[in-house]
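Anyone have C-alpha coordinates for ABC transporter substrate-binding protein? Sequence:
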Amino acid sequence: MTRSIDRRAVLQGAAAIAAATVAAPALAQARTEVSFFYPVAVGGPITRLIDSFAADFEKENPSIALKPIYAGTYQETIVKALTAHKSGTPPVTSVLLSTDMFTLIDEEAIVPFDDFIRTDADKAWLKSFFPGFMENSQTEGKTWGIPFQRSTVVLYWNKEAFKEAGLDPDKPPATWAEQVAFAEKLTRRDGGNTTQWGLQIPASGFPYWLFQGLTTQAGAILMNSAGNRTAYDAPEVIEALQYWVDLSRKHKVHPTGIVEWGTTPRDFFERKCAMMWTTTGNLTSVRANAKFPFGVGMLPAGKRRGSPTGGGNFYLSKKVSKAEQEAAFKFIQWITTPERAAKWGIDTGYVATRKDSWDTPEMKAYVAGFPAAAVARDQLEFAVAELSTHENQRVTKALNDGLQAALTGTKTPEAAMKDAQAEAERILRAYR
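Reply: yep, here.
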Protein backbone atom coordinates (compact mmCIF):
# COMPACT_ATOMS: atom_id res chain seq x y z
CA MET A 1 0.00 0.00 0.00
CA THR A 2 2.78 2.36 0.92
CA ARG A 3 4.67 1.61 -2.29
CA SER A 4 1.47 2.16 -4.30
CA ILE A 5 0.90 5.55 -2.68
CA ASP A 6 4.55 6.46 -3.21
CA ARG A 7 4.31 5.48 -6.86
CA ARG A 8 1.19 7.60 -7.34
CA ALA A 9 2.90 10.49 -5.59
CA VAL A 10 5.91 10.12 -7.86
CA LEU A 11 3.70 10.02 -10.94
CA GLN A 12 1.73 13.05 -9.73
CA GLY A 13 4.95 14.89 -9.00
CA ALA A 14 6.33 14.08 -12.43
CA ALA A 15 3.14 15.27 -14.04
CA ALA A 16 3.27 18.50 -12.04
CA ILE A 17 6.87 19.09 -13.10
CA ALA A 18 6.00 18.42 -16.72
CA ALA A 19 3.05 20.79 -16.52
CA ALA A 20 5.20 23.47 -14.91
CA THR A 21 7.82 22.99 -17.60
CA VAL A 22 5.21 23.56 -20.28
CA ALA A 23 3.65 26.48 -18.38
CA ALA A 24 6.92 28.35 -17.77
CA PRO A 25 7.42 29.47 -21.38
CA ALA A 26 3.71 30.24 -21.59
CA LEU A 27 3.98 32.53 -18.55
CA ALA A 28 7.08 34.17 -19.96
CA GLN A 29 5.28 34.74 -23.23
CA ALA A 30 2.33 36.21 -21.32
CA ARG A 31 4.47 39.07 -19.96
CA THR A 32 3.57 42.36 -21.54
CA GLU A 33 6.68 44.13 -22.80
CA VAL A 34 6.71 47.91 -22.48
CA SER A 35 9.40 49.55 -24.58
CA PHE A 36 10.25 52.96 -23.15
CA PHE A 37 12.16 55.68 -25.02
CA TYR A 38 14.11 57.89 -22.65
CA PRO A 39 16.15 60.91 -23.84
CA VAL A 40 19.71 60.66 -22.65
CA ALA A 41 22.71 60.56 -24.93
CA VAL A 42 25.21 58.81 -22.65
CA GLY A 43 25.23 56.55 -19.63
CA GLY A 44 25.67 57.83 -16.11
CA PRO A 45 23.64 58.64 -13.02
CA ILE A 46 20.37 59.27 -14.89
CA THR A 47 20.43 55.94 -16.74
CA ARG A 48 21.28 54.13 -13.51
CA LEU A 49 18.27 55.77 -11.84
CA ILE A 50 15.94 54.77 -14.67
CA ASP A 51 17.32 51.22 -14.70
CA SER A 52 16.79 51.02 -10.94
CA PHE A 53 13.19 52.22 -11.24
CA ALA A 54 12.58 49.70 -14.03
CA ALA A 55 13.94 46.81 -11.95
CA ASP A 56 11.85 47.81 -8.92
CA PHE A 57 8.71 48.11 -11.04
CA GLU A 58 9.23 44.66 -12.56
CA LYS A 59 9.66 43.12 -9.09
CA GLU A 60 6.29 44.54 -8.08
CA ASN A 61 4.68 43.78 -11.46
CA PRO A 62 6.12 40.47 -12.72
CA SER A 63 3.62 40.32 -15.60
CA ILE A 64 5.20 43.43 -17.19
CA ALA A 65 8.67 43.61 -18.74
CA LEU A 66 9.94 47.18 -18.89
CA LYS A 67 12.57 47.91 -21.54
CA PRO A 68 14.20 51.37 -21.27
CA ILE A 69 15.84 52.49 -24.52
CA TYR A 70 18.21 55.45 -24.24
CA ALA A 71 17.52 57.27 -27.47
CA GLY A 72 19.86 60.27 -27.44
CA THR A 73 19.02 63.94 -26.98
CA TYR A 74 15.45 65.18 -26.84
CA GLN A 75 15.70 66.14 -30.53
CA GLU A 76 17.08 62.72 -31.49
CA THR A 77 14.46 60.95 -29.40
CA ILE A 78 11.47 62.68 -31.01
CA VAL A 79 12.88 61.89 -34.48
CA LYS A 80 13.35 58.23 -33.54
CA ALA A 81 9.91 58.04 -31.93
CA LEU A 82 8.16 59.49 -35.00
CA THR A 83 10.20 57.30 -37.37
CA ALA A 84 9.22 54.23 -35.34
CA HIS A 85 5.59 55.40 -35.36
CA LYS A 86 5.57 55.71 -39.15
CA SER A 87 7.11 52.26 -39.52
CA GLY A 88 4.40 50.81 -37.26
CA THR A 89 6.72 49.78 -34.41
CA PRO A 90 6.76 52.69 -31.94
CA PRO A 91 7.86 52.46 -28.31
CA VAL A 92 4.88 51.90 -26.02
CA THR A 93 5.71 55.03 -24.04
CA SER A 94 8.27 57.80 -24.35
CA VAL A 95 9.56 60.74 -22.36
CA LEU A 96 9.63 63.59 -24.88
CA LEU A 97 9.59 67.36 -24.51
CA SER A 98 6.32 68.77 -23.25
CA THR A 99 6.50 71.11 -26.25
CA ASP A 100 6.31 68.13 -28.63
CA MET A 101 2.63 67.70 -27.71
CA PHE A 102 1.12 69.41 -30.77
CA THR A 103 3.53 67.66 -33.14
CA LEU A 104 2.67 64.25 -31.68
CA ILE A 105 -1.06 65.01 -31.90
CA ASP A 106 -0.76 66.18 -35.52
CA GLU A 107 1.14 63.01 -36.43
CA GLU A 108 -1.56 60.92 -34.69
CA ALA A 109 1.28 59.27 -32.78
CA ILE A 110 -0.22 59.40 -29.28
CA VAL A 111 -3.48 58.84 -27.42
CA PRO A 112 -4.88 61.00 -24.62
CA PHE A 113 -4.72 59.70 -21.08
CA ASP A 114 -8.39 60.49 -20.45
CA ASP A 115 -9.59 57.04 -21.52
CA PHE A 116 -7.40 55.48 -18.80
CA ILE A 117 -8.72 57.71 -16.01
CA ARG A 118 -11.53 55.59 -14.57
CA THR A 119 -11.54 55.69 -10.77
CA ASP A 120 -11.61 58.45 -8.18
CA ALA A 121 -8.00 57.56 -7.40
CA ASP A 122 -7.09 58.05 -11.06
CA LYS A 123 -8.79 61.44 -11.08
CA ALA A 124 -7.01 62.49 -7.88
CA TRP A 125 -3.69 61.39 -9.40
CA LEU A 126 -4.24 63.52 -12.48
CA LYS A 127 -5.17 66.56 -10.38
CA SER A 128 -2.08 66.17 -8.19
CA PHE A 129 0.35 67.71 -10.73
CA PHE A 130 1.22 71.40 -10.58
CA PRO A 131 -1.15 73.37 -12.86
CA GLY A 132 1.83 75.17 -14.41
CA PHE A 133 3.15 71.86 -15.74
CA MET A 134 -0.25 70.82 -17.08
CA GLU A 135 -0.35 73.85 -19.41
CA ASN A 136 2.07 72.02 -21.70
CA SER A 137 0.29 68.70 -21.15
CA GLN A 138 -3.33 69.49 -22.02
CA THR A 139 -5.16 71.07 -24.92
CA GLU A 140 -8.81 71.23 -26.05
CA GLY A 141 -9.97 69.55 -22.85
CA LYS A 142 -7.76 66.46 -23.13
CA THR A 143 -4.61 65.35 -21.32
CA TRP A 144 -1.92 64.19 -23.74
CA GLY A 145 1.16 64.17 -21.50
CA ILE A 146 2.02 63.41 -17.88
CA PRO A 147 4.70 65.67 -16.32
CA PHE A 148 7.83 63.77 -15.34
CA GLN A 149 11.18 65.55 -15.57
CA ARG A 150 10.13 69.15 -15.55
CA SER A 151 12.02 72.32 -14.81
CA THR A 152 12.12 76.09 -14.84
CA VAL A 153 14.97 78.49 -15.55
CA VAL A 154 16.69 79.74 -12.39
CA LEU A 155 19.56 82.06 -11.49
CA TYR A 156 22.73 80.61 -9.97
CA TRP A 157 25.32 82.88 -8.37
CA ASN A 158 28.78 82.48 -6.85
CA LYS A 159 28.62 83.73 -3.26
CA GLU A 160 32.39 84.12 -3.01
CA ALA A 161 32.42 86.33 -6.10
CA PHE A 162 29.61 88.41 -4.60
CA LYS A 163 31.64 88.97 -1.41
CA GLU A 164 34.73 89.93 -3.39
CA ALA A 165 32.65 92.46 -5.36
CA GLY A 166 31.23 94.00 -2.19
CA LEU A 167 27.77 92.49 -2.71
CA ASP A 168 25.63 90.71 -0.16
CA PRO A 169 26.30 87.01 -0.93
CA ASP A 170 22.81 86.03 0.19
CA LYS A 171 20.95 88.59 -1.93
CA PRO A 172 20.62 87.94 -5.67
CA PRO A 173 19.45 90.64 -8.09
CA ALA A 174 15.69 91.07 -7.89
CA THR A 175 15.15 93.24 -10.99
CA TRP A 176 16.58 93.73 -14.47
CA ALA A 177 18.27 96.93 -13.35
CA GLU A 178 19.86 95.20 -10.35
CA GLN A 179 21.00 92.34 -12.56
CA VAL A 180 22.95 94.80 -14.73
CA ALA A 181 24.33 96.68 -11.70
CA PHE A 182 25.44 93.46 -9.98
CA ALA A 183 26.95 92.12 -13.21
CA GLU A 184 28.96 95.32 -13.66
CA LYS A 185 30.52 94.86 -10.22
CA LEU A 186 31.15 91.16 -10.85
CA THR A 187 32.81 91.51 -14.26
CA ARG A 188 36.60 91.37 -13.95
CA ARG A 189 39.11 92.43 -16.57
CA ASP A 190 42.86 92.03 -16.83
CA GLY A 191 43.94 94.58 -19.39
CA GLY A 192 41.87 93.88 -22.48
CA ASN A 193 41.00 90.35 -21.35
CA THR A 194 37.83 89.56 -19.38
CA THR A 195 38.64 86.93 -16.74
CA GLN A 196 35.18 86.79 -15.18
CA TRP A 197 31.87 87.78 -16.76
CA GLY A 198 29.14 89.10 -14.54
CA LEU A 199 26.42 87.04 -16.23
CA GLN A 200 25.92 84.35 -18.86
CA ILE A 201 22.61 83.46 -20.52
CA PRO A 202 23.11 80.59 -22.99
CA ALA A 203 21.99 81.13 -26.58
CA SER A 204 22.63 77.68 -28.03
CA GLY A 205 20.73 74.47 -27.45
CA PHE A 206 17.53 76.07 -26.12
CA PRO A 207 17.86 79.82 -26.83
CA TYR A 208 14.09 80.32 -27.15
CA TRP A 209 13.62 78.85 -23.65
CA LEU A 210 16.06 81.16 -21.91
CA PHE A 211 14.66 84.05 -23.95
CA GLN A 212 11.17 83.19 -22.79
CA GLY A 213 12.30 84.06 -19.28
CA LEU A 214 13.02 87.58 -20.53
CA THR A 215 9.83 87.89 -22.60
CA THR A 216 7.68 86.74 -19.67
CA GLN A 217 9.37 89.30 -17.43
CA ALA A 218 8.71 91.96 -20.09
CA GLY A 219 5.01 91.08 -20.00
CA ALA A 220 4.74 89.09 -23.25
CA ILE A 221 3.27 85.66 -23.97
CA LEU A 222 4.87 84.16 -27.08
CA MET A 223 2.00 81.94 -28.29
CA ASN A 224 -1.67 81.17 -27.78
CA SER A 225 -2.97 78.05 -26.06
CA ALA A 226 -4.22 76.56 -29.35
CA GLY A 227 -0.67 76.58 -30.67
CA ASN A 228 -1.56 78.34 -33.94
CA ARG A 229 -0.42 81.93 -33.32
CA THR A 230 2.81 83.55 -32.12
CA ALA A 231 3.67 87.09 -31.02
CA TYR A 232 7.36 87.24 -31.82
CA ASP A 233 7.18 90.86 -32.99
CA ALA A 234 5.25 92.25 -29.99
CA PRO A 235 6.89 95.39 -28.54
CA GLU A 236 7.55 93.62 -25.23
CA VAL A 237 9.35 90.80 -27.06
CA ILE A 238 11.59 93.26 -28.88
CA GLU A 239 12.23 95.02 -25.55
CA ALA A 240 13.31 91.71 -24.01
CA LEU A 241 15.71 90.96 -26.85
CA GLN A 242 17.15 94.48 -26.69
CA TYR A 243 17.88 93.93 -22.98
CA TRP A 244 19.71 90.68 -23.78
CA VAL A 245 21.74 92.31 -26.56
CA ASP A 246 22.56 95.29 -24.34
CA LEU A 247 24.09 93.05 -21.67
CA SER A 248 27.05 92.47 -23.99
CA ARG A 249 27.10 95.42 -26.39
CA LYS A 250 26.13 98.27 -24.08
CA HIS A 251 26.92 97.13 -20.53
CA LYS A 252 29.73 94.71 -21.48
CA VAL A 253 28.92 92.35 -18.61
CA HIS A 254 28.06 89.34 -20.79
CA PRO A 255 30.07 87.60 -23.55
CA THR A 256 29.31 88.75 -27.08
CA GLY A 257 27.81 86.40 -29.64
CA ILE A 258 26.49 82.97 -28.76
CA VAL A 259 27.05 81.62 -25.24
CA GLU A 260 27.00 77.82 -25.33
CA TRP A 261 24.40 75.92 -23.31
CA GLY A 262 26.72 73.02 -22.53
CA THR A 263 29.74 75.04 -21.43
CA THR A 264 27.95 77.62 -19.27
CA PRO A 265 27.88 75.44 -16.12
CA ARG A 266 31.58 74.67 -16.61
CA ASP A 267 32.32 78.37 -16.96
CA PHE A 268 30.48 78.87 -13.68
CA PHE A 269 32.48 76.14 -11.94
CA GLU A 270 35.74 77.61 -13.30
CA ARG A 271 34.78 81.13 -12.16
CA LYS A 272 34.63 82.45 -15.71
CA CYS A 273 31.15 83.81 -14.90
CA ALA A 274 29.70 84.84 -11.55
CA MET A 275 25.99 84.44 -12.39
CA MET A 276 24.28 82.17 -14.89
CA TRP A 277 20.80 81.37 -16.10
CA THR A 278 20.18 77.67 -16.63
CA THR A 279 17.74 74.91 -15.83
CA THR A 280 16.95 73.78 -12.32
CA GLY A 281 17.70 70.36 -13.81
CA ASN A 282 21.39 71.28 -13.38
CA LEU A 283 20.96 71.75 -9.62
CA THR A 284 22.37 68.38 -8.61
CA SER A 285 25.35 68.84 -10.95
CA VAL A 286 26.07 72.33 -9.61
CA ARG A 287 25.87 71.07 -6.05
CA ALA A 288 28.37 68.31 -6.87
CA ASN A 289 30.81 70.38 -8.93
CA ALA A 290 30.87 73.93 -7.57
CA LYS A 291 33.88 74.28 -5.27
CA PHE A 292 32.47 77.43 -3.69
CA PRO A 293 29.23 78.37 -1.92
CA PHE A 294 26.52 79.22 -4.43
CA GLY A 295 23.00 80.56 -4.39
CA VAL A 296 19.90 79.68 -6.40
CA GLY A 297 17.16 82.22 -6.93
CA MET A 298 14.19 83.13 -9.04
CA LEU A 299 14.95 85.03 -12.22
CA PRO A 300 15.05 88.83 -11.77
CA ALA A 301 11.85 90.69 -12.58
CA GLY A 302 11.23 93.11 -15.40
CA LYS A 303 7.63 94.30 -15.33
CA ARG A 304 6.95 91.06 -13.48
CA ARG A 305 8.69 87.87 -12.40
CA GLY A 306 8.52 84.90 -14.70
CA SER A 307 10.03 81.82 -16.26
CA PRO A 308 8.81 79.23 -18.72
CA THR A 309 8.37 75.69 -17.53
CA GLY A 310 10.36 73.09 -19.42
CA GLY A 311 11.36 69.46 -19.61
CA GLY A 312 9.74 66.17 -20.53
CA ASN A 313 6.38 64.43 -20.32
CA PHE A 314 5.35 60.80 -20.60
CA TYR A 315 3.32 60.04 -23.73
CA LEU A 316 1.40 56.91 -24.75
CA SER A 317 1.82 55.63 -28.32
CA LYS A 318 -1.24 55.08 -30.47
CA LYS A 319 0.00 52.19 -32.63
CA VAL A 320 0.43 49.66 -29.83
CA SER A 321 -1.98 47.19 -28.28
CA LYS A 322 -4.44 48.13 -25.58
CA ALA A 323 -2.68 45.72 -23.21
CA GLU A 324 0.63 47.52 -23.82
CA GLN A 325 -0.99 50.90 -23.25
CA GLU A 326 -2.56 49.69 -20.00
CA ALA A 327 0.78 48.29 -18.81
CA ALA A 328 2.56 51.57 -19.65
CA PHE A 329 -0.15 53.57 -17.89
CA LYS A 330 0.38 51.42 -14.80
CA PHE A 331 4.12 52.16 -14.93
CA ILE A 332 3.56 55.91 -15.40
CA GLN A 333 1.27 56.01 -12.38
CA TRP A 334 3.80 53.94 -10.41
CA ILE A 335 6.81 56.14 -11.18
CA THR A 336 4.87 59.35 -10.40
CA THR A 337 3.72 58.47 -6.89
CA PRO A 338 4.54 61.23 -4.35
CA GLU A 339 7.47 59.27 -2.93
CA ARG A 340 9.02 58.43 -6.31
CA ALA A 341 8.43 61.93 -7.68
CA ALA A 342 10.25 63.24 -4.60
CA LYS A 343 13.13 60.78 -5.06
CA TRP A 344 13.46 61.72 -8.73
CA GLY A 345 13.57 65.41 -7.83
CA ILE A 346 16.14 64.88 -5.07
CA ASP A 347 18.39 62.66 -7.19
CA THR A 348 18.28 64.73 -10.39
CA GLY A 349 17.47 68.34 -9.52
CA TYR A 350 14.31 68.40 -11.63
CA VAL A 351 11.20 69.84 -9.99
CA ALA A 352 9.10 67.16 -8.30
CA THR A 353 5.94 67.52 -10.40
CA ARG A 354 3.28 66.73 -7.79
CA LYS A 355 2.33 69.13 -5.03
CA ASP A 356 1.98 66.31 -2.49
CA SER A 357 5.50 65.02 -3.22
CA TRP A 358 6.80 68.12 -1.40
CA ASP A 359 4.99 66.93 1.75
CA THR A 360 6.83 63.60 1.92
CA PRO A 361 9.29 63.20 4.82
CA GLU A 362 12.17 62.68 2.37
CA MET A 363 11.50 65.91 0.48
CA LYS A 364 10.91 67.92 3.65
CA ALA A 365 14.26 66.75 5.02
CA TYR A 366 15.98 67.50 1.71
CA VAL A 367 14.61 71.04 1.51
CA ALA A 368 15.43 71.69 5.16
CA GLY A 369 19.06 70.85 4.46
CA PHE A 370 19.17 72.40 0.98
CA PRO A 371 16.61 75.25 0.70
CA ALA A 372 17.71 76.04 -2.88
CA ALA A 373 15.82 72.93 -3.98
CA ALA A 374 12.50 74.72 -3.36
CA VAL A 375 13.26 77.78 -5.53
CA ALA A 376 12.03 76.28 -8.80
CA ARG A 377 8.86 75.03 -7.08
CA ASP A 378 8.16 78.49 -5.66
CA GLN A 379 8.80 80.09 -9.05
CA LEU A 380 5.95 78.04 -10.54
CA GLU A 381 3.63 80.72 -9.17
CA PHE A 382 5.06 83.04 -11.84
CA ALA A 383 5.68 80.44 -14.57
CA VAL A 384 4.13 80.26 -18.02
CA ALA A 385 3.83 77.46 -20.56
CA GLU A 386 6.92 76.78 -22.63
CA LEU A 387 6.74 77.83 -26.28
CA SER A 388 4.77 75.12 -28.08
CA THR A 389 2.86 75.26 -31.35
CA HIS A 390 1.89 73.15 -34.31
CA GLU A 391 4.96 72.51 -36.48
CA ASN A 392 6.80 73.29 -33.26
CA GLN A 393 10.36 72.62 -34.40
CA ARG A 394 10.02 74.87 -37.46
CA VAL A 395 8.22 77.65 -35.59
CA THR A 396 10.77 77.53 -32.77
CA LYS A 397 13.65 77.52 -35.26
CA ALA A 398 12.32 80.78 -36.73
CA LEU A 399 12.62 82.36 -33.28
CA ASN A 400 16.02 80.80 -32.55
CA ASP A 401 17.38 82.07 -35.87
CA GLY A 402 16.14 85.55 -35.06
CA LEU A 403 17.70 85.48 -31.59
CA GLN A 404 21.06 84.40 -32.93
CA ALA A 405 20.95 87.07 -35.66
CA ALA A 406 20.37 89.78 -33.04
CA LEU A 407 22.94 88.44 -30.57
CA THR A 408 25.65 88.22 -33.24
CA GLY A 409 24.80 91.70 -34.55
CA THR A 410 23.57 90.53 -37.97
CA LYS A 411 20.15 92.14 -37.39
CA THR A 412 18.64 94.61 -34.97
CA PRO A 413 16.33 93.08 -32.35
CA GLU A 414 13.31 94.64 -34.07
CA ALA A 415 14.22 93.37 -37.54
CA ALA A 416 15.10 89.93 -36.18
CA MET A 417 11.76 89.53 -34.42
CA LYS A 418 9.71 90.86 -37.34
CA ASP A 419 11.39 88.36 -39.65
CA ALA A 420 10.85 85.54 -37.15
CA GLN A 421 7.16 86.42 -36.84
CA ALA A 422 6.72 86.50 -40.62
CA GLU A 423 8.17 82.98 -40.88
CA ALA A 424 6.02 81.70 -38.02
CA GLU A 425 2.91 83.22 -39.63
CA ARG A 426 3.72 81.50 -42.91
CA ILE A 427 3.98 78.12 -41.17
CA LEU A 428 0.99 78.44 -38.85
CA ARG A 429 -1.54 79.99 -41.20
CA ALA A 430 -2.72 76.55 -42.31
CA TYR A 431 -3.66 75.63 -38.72
CA ARG A 432 -6.14 78.49 -38.27
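Residues 351 and 377 are 6 Å apart (CA to CA).
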